[in-house]
Amino acid sequence: MPPRREGKGSQKQARYERLKNEILKFVGANPGCSAQSIVASLSNDRSMRNHGLTPRKVGFFIPRHLAQYLVWWQDHTAGRRVYGETGCLEAPDNR
Questions:
Q1: Tens of pLDDT along 45-69?
Q2: Are 74 and 81 in contact (CB under 8 A)?
Q3: Which end of the chain, N or C, is less surrounded by CB atoms within 10 Å?
Q4: Strand order in 70-75's β-sheet?
Q5: What residue ranges do the domains of the chain occupy?
C-alpha cells in the first residue's frame, strides 16, 4: 500500500464547490425536482459523469451541505423527496 500523501485537498474542495453550485443552479431553475432529475442533468448536461453521482448520494448531500439554501418535501403522488429553494412557491405551507 503506498504511503498517504499529505496535501491540501484542493481537487476535492473544487469538486465539492462545483457540485454545490451546480445543484443550487439546477434546483433554482427547476423547483420541485427530485434527486434523480438532478443527477440526470448533472451527469448528462454538465459533464459530471466521472463524479460517481447517484440519487442516493445527492439525497444525502443536500440536507448535510445545502440545508440553509434548499428545502425538501414529500411528493405524495410519486412517494419521493423533491427539492426547492427556501421560500419557493411549490413547497407546501407546513415546511
A1: 777 766 788 999 999 999 999 999 9
A2: yes
A3: N
A4: 33-34, 80-85, 70-75
A5: 31-95
State the burial class of residue 83 (Cβ atoms within 10 Å of its Cβ: 0-12, 13-18, 19+): buried
Question: What's at 70, amino acid-wise?
Answer: L
What is the per-residue DSSP string for 41-94?
A: HHHHTS--GGG---HHHHHHHHHHHSTTTEEEEEETTTTEEEEEETT-TTS-TT
Q: Are strands 33-34 and 80-85 parallel, antiparallel or unpaired?
A: antiparallel
**What global pTM score does this model have?**
0.79
Q: Alpha-carbon Rg of the chain, whole angstroms?
A: 15
**What amino acid occupies position 14?**
A
